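Quick one: structure for this chain?
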Amino acid sequence: MNRKRKTGNADVLVKRYAPISDGLALLFFPYAEVVIHDTASKKVVYIANNLSRREVGDDSAIDELDIDPAKRLYGPYEKVNWDGRRMRSVSVTLEDDKGAMAGVMCVNFNIAVFEEIGNVLELFVRGVGVAPSHPLDLFKDDWQERINVFLHRWLQERQLAINSLSRDHKRELVEALYIEGAFKGKSAANYVANLLGMGRATVYKHLKALRGELIPELEVYK
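Got it. Here's what it folds into:
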């Protein structure tokens, strides 16, 4: 995984920072490359998980960073790898035993592979030839979807989660669904009871109070 050569500042840089470089490269293997540059010789002195096809001893491109001795961290910034793929990088200045800047460690992360995965997922989620909604002639009375849409809009407006609703919230939601006409569908009360984790008898009780009349189904649960 690693290639190194020790000359000048490289002795200190490699001894002190090579284990860190190896650790980062192993943690994010195979997507991260870590390169140590000697700012005195402007040479590459260590490479962990070589993705850029550079070699130890190659000239560095650290002048591109416009290094400020008082600044320790650069990036994240993007660069293009030899194969045309995008890399996202951060660079950190390194110190010698006297606290003076002696080198730069660059962590180069291959984000192209994740972009490709993202593109595949986007295509899969978006679909090909998928209609924006279901066929009206086949689902002209899809009361379940109407309940789902209303339910989640109601939750979002109140910044609530369905699994953390209180008893009062559930009662309010049943009332809101009733006003919306959600219980006109066959078995709608049972469906709402299952969604909200309520007993069917409780839902029928709320509906009875709202309608002001006896609901036949309620007799089953007395």
